[in-house]
Amino acid sequence: SQAVIRSRLSVSLLPDFLNPDVKLCDGQQGPVSCFVIQMCVQVSGHRIPQQTALRVELQLDRMKQPTTRRTLLLLTNQPQETSTLLVQREEGVACTNRTAYLRSEEEVQDKLSPIFITVNISLLNTTQHALLHGQTHAAAQTRIILDCGEDNVCVPDLKLDAVLLSDSVLVGEDQSVVLSVSAENDGEGAYETELVVQIPKHTHFQSSQGVNRLVCVQRKENQTVVVTCDLGNPMRQGHKLHTDLVFSVGHLEEVESHITFNLRIRSKNSVNSSSNEITVDVQVKAEARLQIRGGSSPPEVVLPLPDWQPAMHPGSLEEIGPLVEHVYELRNQGPGAVNARMTVDFPSTWRHHFLLYVFSNAAEESLNCRTLNASQIDPFQ
Prior knowledge:
Elements: E1 3-14, E2 17-18, E3 25-27, E4 30-44, E5 51-60, E6 71-73, E7 80-88, E8 93-102, E9 115-123, E10 130-134, E11 137-144, E12 158-164, E13 168-170, E14 176-185, E15 193-198, E16 203-209, E17 216-221, E18 224-232, E19 240-249, E20 258-266, E21 278-285, E22 288-297, H1 317-320, E23 325-335, E24 349-350, E25 353-354, E26 363-364, E27 367-368, H2 374-377
Parallel strand pairs: 1-10, 2-11, 13-21
Antiparallel strand pairs: 1-4, 3-4, 4-8, 5-7, 5-9, 6-8, 9-11, 12-14, 14-19, 15-18, 15-20, 16-19, 17-18, 20-21, 22-23, 24-25, 26-27
């Protein structure tokens, strides 16, 4: 038969809150804020072994991924440990302590959520003919002390303002949209604070300029393209900043009247976590400078023509009269593309007689010419 070892497991932390400003232990990189983890196991039962050998698995900040855990063991700089604990039958209880520390403020992103410390125990193979029954798992939690008053709950008051340095953009012109952004926190500390800018299609973030240059990233959130900029962790009470966000815009010829930017500040705080939302419309305008020039070949015709008689039934252009050719050059100097129409007025009669006849119009891929009221001015068509 096997002996049944009844177990009770407890874990306690001292102190039970972590103060980043109180650094009583020496780490590899200097003083650190530390705490003691005490693990105790109590065993009892009928005919249990003289010595119970247990495997103890300790996990720090269990809810986080290993690379982002906020607390580490002081001796190993690791977030977990497996050790052996021996409990003597006469004593019935054994405890072991470990010292852990809080990583530096720059390394800790999440300062709000609790830090869970978990312990699991199991029998080692050296303890034969026995079963472990009872409590084999225990957990404790601690938090980082914040500058948030007695309740340790930060309530920020985030405010945002944004204006355009230029209220419009031109179709076809290589230009940027510049948003002048001001942000401040009039409340308690705001943690993992970000400026979030929802941008229009075919828009790309270029840079942050001015007094405060922010680190910004363009990415997709829920099928929407946004730019997020780090404002601080925490963004402390009374902190103000100002920056100019520069964006490039494209495909403006597809826009009817304007493009829209939506801005807000968000944080991971549980209360009053966001700012007011700002909507900025940028007007899209089309402008073009057109230039026209032309010439006539020949430059002049003197009438009446000497020694010339009209033919009753002309068979060629020469029998109608001398050929006059007009050549026009229309140039768009930009910046935008336009649909343009050029109208050429010419004298078709003189003293109730036909003067100029239109025999042909230019025809190109992007050009379409026609003569209005052609039947009235071209009797030979």
